[in-house]
Amino acid sequence: MKQSLRIFLLLMLSVCVSDACCENLFKKIPRAVNNFVEKFNDYDTTYIEPNKYDFAAMVQSTTSTERYTLRTDDGQSISFGPKMRPRIGPYFGWRWIFLGYTFDVSNPSFGDHSGRKDFDISFYTNLIGIDLYYRQTGTDYRIREADFGRGINTRELEGLNFGGLKSGVMGANIYYIFNNNHFSYPAAYSQSTIQRRSAGSFIAGIGYTHHTLDYDHRKLDSLLLQHGFNPSVMDSTLRIDEVSYSDLNFSLGYAYNWVPARNFLINASLSAAIAIDHIESTYDDDKDRPFWRRAFSNNYLNIDGLLRLGAVYNNSRWFAGVSYILNTYNFRHSDLKTTNMFGNLNVYIGFNFHKRK
């Protein structure tokens, strides 16, 4: 059997060499790869002007916003949000990719003593876009809003520091731009092309995220007592120890680039996603509650959202702009509902250099 296989392979090799098919094969592979890469730059130049430079440098200020809300089925809710701290730093770009580092303006030393970590990578082309992100909040949350029902005035709680909450999210999104011949996402968010005529496009994508919430409700009970509230006014459903869930979503949306004047661009993009959420949550030591209310692990369908807004001035050599990207993730259950909203407001100015040959 082995001898027959060797003879067969030798015959195939001789045919390949005699017909020069191997040579053709090795020519076709790099050609196919090159055609695939060139597809990313295949667009109508009356709508999209290619970048004339290989590299870019810029300074960017980023302000992060976040709001985490827990809500019960009977309408009680409490929302938390960290302090807004602007960060600033340098960025360096090569064609489609921008990488950089920002530091806290109020605490310019490296690292964040509150435990906050934030990492984002975006890859924009006319065909596809990819977002990778990792966020770990610190212990600098505040109570943004509380509603315990029954006419209870909770205004006094708003703005109070609450160090009993930590949340994290990590994930990736990839999306396809249908009208990639006329519409340019990079023109709005990475300045690697210039939109010359107004155009829009439908966008479809898939994403995966993993969310964690570490919540010490005992600290919240103590805070309520300090301000004259009986902790019993808060529904026991809100007394969870942690929430951890994964989110697989399929999105569809629309984006539009409006060109009001030469070198100016305004973008708006909105996508809605059907999400399959798998959650594992544990309540505190309330042993009288049924097990399914103390710990549950199930899959549910929910709706997520992604909003992008941007305004850019780009004359090919210099560029400046502002953008806001907001992600919304929801989990809905008859017993517990959570909403996690986080976004980045970016203000930047930069220039391109090393003209392409």
Task: Describe the fold and architecture.
The protein is elongated. The protein is built from five helices and 18 strands. The strands form two sheets. It has a 16-stranded antiparallel beta sheet that branches. Mean pLDDT is 81; it is low at 284-297. The chain has a single domain, classed as Lipocalin, CATH 2.40.128. 15% of the residues lie in helices and 54% in strands. A hairpin with a 3-residue loop joins strand 16 (295-314) and strand 17 (318-331). The chain has 357 residues and is an alpha+beta fold. The protein has helices at residues 2-18, 21-39, 185-189, 217-226, 291-294, and strands at 48-50, 53-71, 77-82, 87-94, 97-100, 103-104, 117-124, 128-136, 141-147, 161-162, 165-177, 193-195, 199-215, 240-258, 264-283, 295-314, 318-331, 337-355.
Q: What number is the mean pLDDT? A: 81
Largest sheet: 16 strands, antiparallel
Oligomer: single chain
Question: Radius of gyration from the CA trace?
Answer: 26 Å
Structural class: alpha+beta
Tally of individual helices = 5
Using the alpha-carbon principal axes, give the shape. elongated
Number of domains: 1
Strand proportion, as a percent range, falls in over 45%
* Number of β-strand runs: 18
CATH topology: Lipocalin
Helicity range: 10-25%
* Distance linking N and C termini: 57 Å
Low-pLDDT regions: 284-297
Regarding CATH, which class?
Mainly Beta
CATH architecture: Beta Barrel
